[in-house]
């Protein structure tokens, strides 16, 4: 993949995520400019969105474990909820395509992604040490606990304000 293609893919993925966040209907935003050329098909786009979800979730779990080292399972639940709050469109797309895959290949991919996510939840919560079917079941219980107390809200983008050092300098120069 060339440098230009890599950055175009990133830009397109950001546009897809923004569209999914705005819609929150769980449909893959295949109508976003550049999606057909960059991702090709629904399964490839769904794979990219799933990867974004999984990496953000893993990172959020690590951060929460630093803040809540005594209640590990609650830290994992909180991390799942905060990730769902950060990526509501991706979560909706993943949930919809887990429940209603477009074909057998997507059903298989979503089943594998769900199992890997649940294993991550169970292992990071300190509930299992092996990556097996028992870990998937424990992770599913943790996911269900996170969903049970999660209340999604439609976010309104906050107005951009000068908060960083460079922003303050720019504001001072503009004044």
Automatic annotation (TrEMBL):
What's the protein name?
Uncharacterized protein
């Amino acid at each position: 993949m060339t440098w230009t293609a890599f950055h175009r893919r990133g830009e397109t993925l950001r546009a897809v995520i923004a569209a999914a966040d705005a819609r929150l209907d769980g449909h893959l935003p295949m109508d976003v400019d550049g999606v057909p050329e960059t991702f090709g098909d629904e399964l490839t786009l769904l794979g990219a969105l799933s990867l974004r979800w999984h990496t953000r979730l893993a990172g959020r779990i690590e951060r929460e474990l630093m803040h809540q080292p005594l209640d590990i399972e609650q830290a994992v639940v909180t991390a799942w909820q905060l990730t769902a709050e950060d990526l509501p469109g991706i979560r909706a797309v993943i949930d919809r395509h887990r429940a209603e895959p477009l074909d057998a290949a997507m059903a298989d991919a979503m089943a594998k992604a769900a199992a890997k996510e649940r294993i991550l939840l169970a292992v990071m919560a300190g509930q299992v040490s092996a990556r097996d079917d028992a870990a998937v079941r424990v992770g599913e219980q943790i996911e269900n606990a996170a969903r049970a107390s999660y209340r999604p809200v439609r976010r309104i983008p906050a107005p951009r304000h000068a908060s960083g050092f460079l922003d303050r300098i720019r504001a001072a120069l503009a004044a």
